[in-house]
Amino acid sequence: MIAALEFHLIDFSRNWRGTVFGSFVVPLLTMLGFGVGVGGYVQGGVDGVSYLEFLVPGLLASTALQIALGESTWPVMANMEWIKLYPAQAATPLRPVDIVGGHLLFALLRVIGGSSAFLVVGVLFGALPSAWALACLPIAVLLGLAVAAPVFAYSIAVPTEVYLSLLMRFAVIPMTLFSGVFFPIETMPVVLRWVAYVTPLWHAVDLCRTVTLGRAPDWAVAGHLLYLALWAVAGITLAVRGFHRRLGV
Amino acid sequence: MTPMIEAAGLVKRFGDFTAVDGIDVTVQPGESFGFLGPNGAGKSSTMRMIGCVSPPTDGLLRILGMDPVRQGPAIRARLGVCPQLDNLAPDLTVLQNLTTYARYFGIPRREARRRATELLEFVQLSERSGAEVEPLSGGMKRRLTIARALINEPDLVLLDEPTTGLDPQARHLVWERLFRLKQRGVTLVLTTHYMDEAEQLCDRLVVMDAGKIVAEGSPRALIERYSTREVVELRFQAESQSGFAAKLEGIGERTEELPDRILLYASDGDAALTEVHARGLSPSGALIRRSSLEDVFLHLTGRTLVD
After folding, report:
1. Which residues of A touch B76 (CB under 8 A)?
2. Of A13, A93, B133, B231, which is the most exposed, with the fewest CB atoms less than 10 Å away?
3. CATH number for the domain formed by residue range(s) B5-219
4. Mean pLDDT taken over chain B
């Protein structure tokens, strides 16, 4: 598994510059646009904190989601169908679990990198009042696994990249909009609130918000963690099974 | 001695389609063995089963004495695989392609570097060591893939159509390198639809057609058994060829009629051609050549290898 991870790291080391630049610039722009711009119109803050303080943990979680998705959609299809990295690896002693695991670990490292960059930018904006904000990193990793693992299973199974676009359009965009990133889900009708409850993102948003605002954890924290872990475990199981089937080993 | 490959009644089905239809094959250590046949004969499906990346549907298969379904990783650790389509990492350098692959076999980094450098020497790519893979020519990529297949010092090397798509010069360079491996005693198993490749590289081969083995033996033995020593290729004006086949009756052992020419099989080509002229036939072109595996395949299946 580590040997497979090494491949992805070396591959990444050959064209990392754009990614690193992007992981600082994107949070900078969103914080400026939404936090400062939109925040200027939000009178009296949200839930007793400034809009920027409310927004940043949400954006952090949704950034982790974007990175996890970015690595588990087109790259997975490319590695199976176009570049044929996975078939090349399958001809060696590596097992499907090593091949999935190596790529998944790499995706999680990217999630950690992107989330760390986000935290740095957040600190510069003064939007992270509590040092507990560091706990966002493990939360981001858990969310990354809860999202990337099932999407690995999806991307290895679907026949064409049209299905990847569909996933982005009909699952990711609604999830990002209705998961309490930009406004509390309590303001939405009950039906939409269920989108938040069922999909993984809102659970991570709520966890991140709890830690960045330094609030005392309550029973909801355990529920969120358990639910995300469920997605992760189910996703890993399905992904390993899917790789098994596609690689014939 | 345990055979490298032992297959009995080996079958691979995909849904209703039977790609490999009950073949029996044994390959001994040090042998250079070939699967010869046209596209779709079941060669690649057989290779994938041998490479432990496609479980057999039925029959017995033992690779290095082990079961490919239950002991896949242990077998693959001792195989070198050169797939039909190159699957090198396009963004990595030539050297990195070898060293990252070595790590999959648990080879320590230093040792991986040493072997990679040595193998690049062997496939004559040393001066490209630091270059990216993508701009390399087809022949260079194929040689790199062969080097990659040797990184774990395999007991058995599988080559699926090693020179398909390469220009003649690049093919000869690949053949020459493979011949050296063969001389070192490495067991080679290859598929090909080029009879010259099979003749050059294989000690023994099977001819496959529609998932079945239709003949087996050394290239020479197959030619002796299924063909004559020489062949006379006769070309006539296209519209009139059909009538000529009948007029050749009795010359040589037999004839094969192809769309553009008639093949006349005879032990003595010169004598046969003299007889053709004596019958008052004047082909627009005549060529006497030695029999090849192509003739064997044509005789066995009634079709040519490369359409």
Report:
1. 91-93
2. A13
3. 3.40.50.300
4. 92
